[in-house]
């Protein structure tokens, strides 16, 4: 395969084969443009096949065929748009590379204005689960919708899987994909981050000074893990027995500690609400205890749960099963106990309690960090007093700006901040955004649904599902999964079904069991 460099951002080559894609990836390319029409010669790989393989290697791909009546002149504007939108550098190919070279030269002569590059009908800030799912749901309804996603990261993570990494069930590679591989086809990916908002003029400014205008804005900015709020914590994370399943790079260390700790004191912490997945601190603890029980050393472990709140779980219906689990493992519950400092070298944790500060030595410390709103959002007029996006809890439309919506962990609604909540919210936001784009009012409503598969032991889960007000809201029939009791089927759902549902359902706009409910 002979590659010719046209510019710092573009190279061309002749026909590529399936086996070439790995080499293209390792050569540093981020995207591929196919300029050869399907079916020109027998045995030629189809563009769709190449795109699937490219996606598996984290490469974006665009099909812009040139041949016969489809001239390079006709395709020049599409090629120019692809070069503006795709991650760079880009490799374009045809049979010999000549058509790709020609269309690239023509594309450079295409008229281009700042407005064409910097205005979008729908602008989504954030390429996490909420942002990607919302864009995909909108494109399912309106294929040619003009959507841009602002997201600085190269990688996209399946965060619910990190608990399973820390429990020795998943491998880290199971929970990460290149951002280019999950970005919906047809969306413009702007690899940057927002720095300021100007909602009165429908403008945002990015970190590089670029101004983006929009008709509709969707906030999907998540929340911030405030490790810095605990004195000494950042200096000792990943060593001295201090870990957290709330970070991709630390979850494997959790499992390493669990495997290698056979006696001593293990502390698990939970900060004040709101946090991502309120059950995650407990999940880490229960899976650890399950492994220690399996290895026959649980009786040699002192396990303490330090919870800043006053209850084990916010939905009372699930507490009895969790209390049974706590008692079976002999866990010492400490409510109203907030981690405020860590001395990793001395292996000591300091907690603030009603009686004052308490110091606890440890052999293992699993920390759930305090969490705050995205700082840029919190300092804007779009936030409420707590720093979260101020939206209607049913329509997810901003309370003061009718052309702004928000979704996921950055909203101020009382629902649980979980991936399951974002999955339920995405179709609602998609419907309401498209209605607003058409000059209409909201059409769909979110009921506050959230789900927390509480891994009480290896092989069993208490599947907590609930809506606003703590109302239990099972998705599947209770005769199939009794959510208030530990279930092996719920474990199979968590371990085997939910990851593919996430990657191939939620992020593709497939709304299995989460069709939007009409607004009453």
From TrEMBL:
Residues 5-108 form the Beta-lactamase hydrolase-like protein phosphatase-like domain. Its cofactor is FAD. It comes from Altericroceibacterium spongiae. The keyword Transit peptide applies. GO terms for molecular function: FAD binding; hydrolase activity; quinone binding; sulfide:quinone oxidoreductase activity. Residues 121-243, 321-426 form the FAD/NAD(P)-binding domain. Keywords: FAD, Flavoprotein, Oxidoreductase, Quinone, Transit peptide. This is NAD(FAD)-dependent dehydrogenase. The keyword Oxidoreductase applies. It comes from the Bacteria. One of its GO terms (biological process) is sulfide oxidation, using sulfide:quinone oxidoreductase.
């Amino acid at each position: 395969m002979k590659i010719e460099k046209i510019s710092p951002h573009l190279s061309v080559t002749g026909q590529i084969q399936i086996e070439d894609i790995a080499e293209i990836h390792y050569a540093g390319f981020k995207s591929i443009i196919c300029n050869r029409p399907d079916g020109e010669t027998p045995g030629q790989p189809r563009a769709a096949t190449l795109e699937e393989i490219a996606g598996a290697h984290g490469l974006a791909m665009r099909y812009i065929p040139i041949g016969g009546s489809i001239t390079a002149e006709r395709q020049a504007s599409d090629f120019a748009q692809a070069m503006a939108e795709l991650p760079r550098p880009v490799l374009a190919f045809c049979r010999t590379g000549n058509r790709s070279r020609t269309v690239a030269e023509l594309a450079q002569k295409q008229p281009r204005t700042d407005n064409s590059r910097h205005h979008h009908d729908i602008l989504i800030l954030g390429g996490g689960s909420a942002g990607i799912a919302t864009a995909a749901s909108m494109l399912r309804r309106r294929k040619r919708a003009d959507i841009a996603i602002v997201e600085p990261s190269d990688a996209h993570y399946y965060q619910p899987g990190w608990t399973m990494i820390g429990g020795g069930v998943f491998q880290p590679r199971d929970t990460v994909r290149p951002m280019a591989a999950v970005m919906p086809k047809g969306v413009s990916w702007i690899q940057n981050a927002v720095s300021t908002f100007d909602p009165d003029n429908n403008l945002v400014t990015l970190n590089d000074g670029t101004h983006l205008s929009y008709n509709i804005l969707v906030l999907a900015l998540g929340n911030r893990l405030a490790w810095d709020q605990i004195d000494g914590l950042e200096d000792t994370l990943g060593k001295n027995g201090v870990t957290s399943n709330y970070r991709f790079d630390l979850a494997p260390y959790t499992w390493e500690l669990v495997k290698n700790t056979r006696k001593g004191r293990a502390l698990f912490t939970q900060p004040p609400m709101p946090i991502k997945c309120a059950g995650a601190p407990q999940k880490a603890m229960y899976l650890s205890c399950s492994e220690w029980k399996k290895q026959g050393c649980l009786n040699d472990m002192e396990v303490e749960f330090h919870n800043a709140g006053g209850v084990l779980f916010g939905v009372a219906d699930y507490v009895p099963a969790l209390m049974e689990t706590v008692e079976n493992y002999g866990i010492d519950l400490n409510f109203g106990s907030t981690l405020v400092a860590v001395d990793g070298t001395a292996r000591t944790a300091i907690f603030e309690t009603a009686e004052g500060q308490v110091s606890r030595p440890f052999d293992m410390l699993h920390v759930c960090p305090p969490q705050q709103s995205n700082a840029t959002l919190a300092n804007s007029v779009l936030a409420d007093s707590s720093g979260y996006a101020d939206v209607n809890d049913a329509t997810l439309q901003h309370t003061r700006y009718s052309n702004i919506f928000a979704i996921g962990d950055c909203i101020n609604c009382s629902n649980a901040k979980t991936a399951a909540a974002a999955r339920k919210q995405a179709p609602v936001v998609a419907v309401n955004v498209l209605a607003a784009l058409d000059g209409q009012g909201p059409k769909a409503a979110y009921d506050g649904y959230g789900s927390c598969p509480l891994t009480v032991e290896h092989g069993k889960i208490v599947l907590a599902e609930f809506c606003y007000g703590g109302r239990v809201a099972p998705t599947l029939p209770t005769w199939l999964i009794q959510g208030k009791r530990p279930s092996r089927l719920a474990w199979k759902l968590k371990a085997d079904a939910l990851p593919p549902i996430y990657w191939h359902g939620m992020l593709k706009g497939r709304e299995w069991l989460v069709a939007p409910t009409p607004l009453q």
